Amino acid sequence: LAVGGYYEVTIWNAADGKLARRIKDVEQRVFGLAYSTDGKLLAVAAGTPGVSGEAALYDPAKGTVVRRLGTMSDVALGCAFSPDGKQLAVCGSDRSIRLYDVATGKETLLIEDHADWVMTIAWSADGTRLVSGARDKTSKLFDAKTGDSLTTYPGHSETVLSAAFAPDGKSILTGGADKKIHVWN
Q: Of 56, 79, 151, 176, whose Cβ has the fewest other Cβ atoms within 10 Å?
């Protein structure tokens, strides 16, 4: 279990609840964490509010930096690996969604479609679409290859904090500060 902290990520043994290690080479505040499907990489979205943000990959077994992917003008708030583990999507308070090639660390796509902080990001099971949620009270669906906006869901009355595809891939679930779960196509 990975837990974000102040200038660190702690790794805990889920079986016995004991601290396994501390990863210290981390930006000031950790906002998002994601394990790769094989568990060999831990993505960290972090930063110093109002100053900078960063997305980085760590080896959770050793506690070392594998690759720093990119920086932003403000904090990185969320991250998600593509289903095949080859890409990492990162969202942030600079209103962006950035895709990185995990093997090279190269930024492959920049999406700037929200009017406010992008709080959450998730991949479809087939890796062809991304769904985001933002402080602008919208959730958006994007083509993961081109970054083209496919649709916007404006049904929330407050910030959208979480987004996920339903297991069948036909609908999207979003939740936020309005304390409601919205299910939409």
A: 151
- Alpha-carbon Rg for the chain in angstroms: 16
Q: Which three-class secondary structure string do you get for 89-153?
A: EEEECCCCEEEEECCCCCEEEEECCCCCCEEEEEECCCCCEEEEEECCCCEEEEECCCCCEEEEE
Q: Which amino acid is at 57?
A: L
Rounded to 5°, the CA angle 135-136-139 comes to 90
How does pLDDT run across 112-148, given as a tens digit for each residue? 999 999 999 999 999 999 999 999 999 999 999 999 9
The answer to whether residues 64 and 58 touch, using CB atoms and an 8 Å cutoff, is: yes
* Cα angle, residue 55 at apex, residues 108 and 113 outer, rounded to 5°: 55
Q: Residue holding tokens 């110093």?
A: 48
Helix, strand, coil content of the chain in percent (nearest 5)? 0, 55, 45
Closest-CA residue to 81 (of 114, 39, 18): 39
Give the Cα separation of 137 and 155 in Å (integer): 8
Residue 17's region, left for phi above 0, alpha for psi from -120 to 50, else beta, is: left
Q: Which residues contact 94 (CB under 8 A, 6 or more apart)?
A: 53, 72, 73, 74
Q: Is the pTM above the cut of 0.90?
A: yes
**The amino acid at 47:** G
